[in-house]
Amino acid sequence: MNAHTSFSASDFATMRQRQWADDSSQAILCRRVIDETHDVKTFVFTFASDHMFCFNAGQYIVLHLTIGGVAVTRSYSVSSPPTRPLDLHITVKRTPGGLVSNWLHENLRAGDEVNVEGPLGSFKLDGLNSDKPLFLAGGSGITPLMSMLRTLTDRASDLDLRLIYSARSPRDLIFRLELDALAARFRNLRVTCVCSRADPSWAGPTGRIDGPMLRRLVPDLGERTVYACGPEQYMNALRDGLGQAGVDPRGYHEESFGRSLGGVTADVASAVSSSVHFARSRLDHRCAPGETLLEAARNCGVYVPSGCQQGICGTCRIAKLSGEVTMQDLGGLTSEEISAGLVLACCSRAKGPVTLDL
Question: Which domain holds residue 146?
Answer without folding.
Answer: 133-257
